[in-house]
């Protein structure tokens, strides 16, 4: 029973880390999938397979090399010097992304609740701080609450779309976009999101004793992400091309389902931003504690202060600066992950898995040196 609970916690955390503000609003899905018409169904399936395979592979490798942070993991992928430099750049990008999430929370409070922008920032920061005092367990708990609600809303949207004219449009929707762009899109989307998720999934794997729970959690998490992609694409395809005019396309769908669903949707957008913010802050804090010669208890408040200052520049401007840069780096990162072997020795005291049998001493030495 404990193993099954851990599996669900890992799956929910995986989904909650990937699903952020861009996913919840529908802009990411519209940009990377729906606008490619009938190709989108196949590219979503490809992206789902990549999330299952690469997300699980990342967690298994992270656990076997005992990586405490994504910097340890990047050193394993790229080597000591290149890995350290890439991790430093990744940290800067993640701080920018965290600032974007924080700015998004402020925008929700201002635009939809009629409350001050700064109130949204401060509530998010204070809530995150107290949750992070629980460590990795706090992240598992918040995602175990948020993700089932997100999956439920996806089901509601699917059932509502079935009764609308044009529900079958996702199978035949035409597009003027290139085939090359359609098939590159799931690769870029998966790379970008896994590049961000490593900040959480690597320490999560390090704190998981049961490797099979990681495997099952990675598979369920990838399937859950794929299901939510399909649900949103199915709903938005039925409204094409008119839905392209909306800045929050999923919001236009949810708002037609009545005030209760509208309120639930706004709450979920905030909770998705909140859970992603908490997860990324945790991941960056773990890396900074390895680098900075200050008291560990000061790292998280200092990081939140930096994000708060950056969030004053607003949501859109930060989005335009940081996302394209990180997307290019993430594609290189995924290529290295694809090439990385999983045939590493399990941790001390555990029986070797079938794939790790027969490893020579030459293969073991690099892993030992990395852990030091």
UniProtKB/TrEMBL annotation:
InterPro entries: YkvI-like. The chain crosses the membrane at residues 12-30, 36-54, 86-109, 115-132, 144-167, 187-205, 217-240, 260-282, 294-315, 321-338. Keywords: Membrane, Transmembrane, Transmembrane helix. The keyword Transmembrane helix applies. It comes from the Bacteria. This is Membrane protein YkvI. The lineage of its organism: Bacteria, Bacillati, Bacillota, Bacilli, Bacillales.
